[in-house]
Amino acid sequence: MTVMSADQMSIGDMLAATVPMARTLNLEFLETAPDRAVVCLPDQSAYHNHVGGPHAGAMFTLGESASGAIVLAAFGDQLTRAVPLAVRAEIAYKKLAMGVVTATATLGRPAAEVVAELDAGQRPEFPVSVEIRRADGAVTGEMTVVWTLRPADQRK
């Protein structure tokens, strides 16, 4: 399910249009919903590493992009008053990734809880968990990206 209104681009189209690295890697936004985002990195030799699989940097970008897609799906209605920003990220490369890889992102806290903190004048932080899998289903990477919603009236 892609979150989209009649007068807006899909989240995937918006990210591809505004984030040059997502466009460069030809990321495919397969699902963007408030509870889950799925993004695919096609197998492209230009982005391979020394063993013929996707480069670690490409896999990191895939995972971070999936986390950004779920953040926009979950908190897109807050963009007039808050800016989503990645605070920190950690990735673990578990198995050799070869061919097409897909990242699935899930929110680590209920969106309503995060919005309630924003409503209370706080700058909420929340984790997004990402699993990266190759075509045979094996988990090749696990990532956590911690995001914040910075109130628009805060500059730092």
UniProtKB/TrEMBL annotation:
Query: One Pfam annotation, family name?
Result: DUF4442
SUPFAM superfamilies per record? Thioesterase/thiol ester dehydrase-isomerase
Q: Which domain of life is it from?
A: Bacteria
Q: Which InterPro entries match?
A: DUF4442, HotDog_dom_sf
Q: What is this protein called?
A: DUF4442 domain-containing protein
